[in-house]
Amino acid sequence: MQKRTETKEALGRKYPESVVLVTTRAPDGRPNVMAVGWVSLASETPAMFVLGIDDSARTYALIRKTREFVVAFPSERMAKETLFAGTHSGRDTNKFAATGLAMSAGAKVRAPLLSDAVANFECRLAAVTKPGDCPLVVGKVVAAHVHAARSLKRLYTLGKGYRLGGVRPAVKPAGGKRRR
Questions:
Q1: What mean pLDDT do residues 135-153 have?
Q2: Is the backbone of residue 76 left (phi > 0), alpha (psi -120 to 50) or beta?
Q3: Distance CA 76, CA 117 (A)
Q4: pLDDT tens digit sequence for 100-118
């Protein structure tokens, strides 16, 4: 049974929700990282992500300028760094230096991969649209990487107030059929 409520109250029930770290590299070579909660797969073929990034964010400006970025799915071990990346501006702080996030070079874009992430997706900017108060950035995946340790839990936002925690993806049962 459903009861009518305000949108804000209903949105409080959306958790857990994805959180990703988006990396960019400024033209001067300085890396940048930002936590993004509004993220979704926009297409499987070709693989594309859509991100909601505030138009005043440094990350948004760098994506528009360089036309490339990395979408990294952080592991639960990266909770402290993810929280820092989501609560500090790259205009004021070198978030890589402040957090000690380990990075490595990508195969196709200049933006860094996050070494401890569950997965990294190198993207080229495909489109930007602004259907509401937040621009939507669409990136086409040009290379993908996964962490060698499959046991890592992916980090999620568990609720309001910056509550973060890990969730391990479900595994298909033997024989490849999903249980219902």
A1: 95
A2: alpha
A3: 9
A4: 999 999 999 999 999 999 9
- Gyration radius of the chain over CA positions: 17
User: What are the structural domain ranges in the chain?
Assistant: 16-166
Q: What 3-state DSSP class applies to 94?
A: coil
Q: Is 171 helix (H, G, I), strand (E, B) or coil?
A: coil
Alpha carbons 45 and 25: distance in angstroms, whole number: 26
For 16-166, CATH gives 2.30.110.10
Are 113 and 105 a contacting pair, CB within 8 Å?
A: yes
Phi-psi region of 67 (alpha: psi -120 to 50; beta: other; left: phi over 0): left
Distance CA 28, CA 6 (A): 46
Token pair, residue 42, equals: 């926009």
pLDDT at 179: 46
If we measure between CA atoms, which residue out of 158, 154, 35 comes closest to residue 85? 35
123-137 pLDDT per residue, tens? 999 999 999 999 999
Token duo for residue 162: 């910056």
